[in-house]
Amino acid sequence: MGVDYIQIIQEHQAELAKLPPRFRPGSLFLFIIAMESIRHIQTIAVERDAPRDGDNHYAMVAPQTVIMAVATLEAGANEIIEWLKDHPTHPTTVPDGFDELRIEMKWLLLPVIAKWRSFDKSSRPWQDFQHLVALRNALVHPKGRNLSKTIDWLKQRGAVLKDSTPSDQFRASLTLKTAQWAVWTVRHMFHEMTSRVPKSWDKASHGWAWGHYVEPIVIRSRKGADVARGTKRQNGRGREK
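Structure (tokenized):
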């Protein structure tokens, strides 16, 4: 059955409480809201009559998850840039106008500014990130948006309801699986950024707070399978199906 999002949320909140106040990122609170949205999708009675394909179904609050997922990534980029500027052993100069950049450019430039490994734009999760932002933009700025590539991407993830008409595919993409994919994308973007921080930067001592998105919280589904943060566990690391 489904992942116990209540338990994941409680464990995130417990981890937050352990951090000194200045190391509690606001982005993690936004992420908790995104996961709360998924829990809501899985539990509210009104969803029972929603159009569905097997274990996937239309979800009225899926847009909230998508919007909060992108908000988490944007807030996280802004927090990380402040962490770079204030780092006690590797203070980093940030170019003027960084705050005004689009979210994709912020994430692309962060490792460049810090002189870490850059992102591979031709692979996941960067491609998921781009499609997530495109979906968010279509939700909040719908005029003139061409989502055909993003809809195709979501179809490959099994997130778009089958048998939907071409004119209804945007609505058919607002599903439980799309919401879960949005959360998956947030986790993996922060994982990729965390993996780029060199050991010499001493994340533990200098308050790198964004590893809490990706620390291995392993829980049990009702069927008894190991589940890592809402994804099937393979080779010790949670991956999307």
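The chain has one domain: 5-239. The beta strands are 52-53, 56-57, 218-220, 226-228, 231-234, 237-239.
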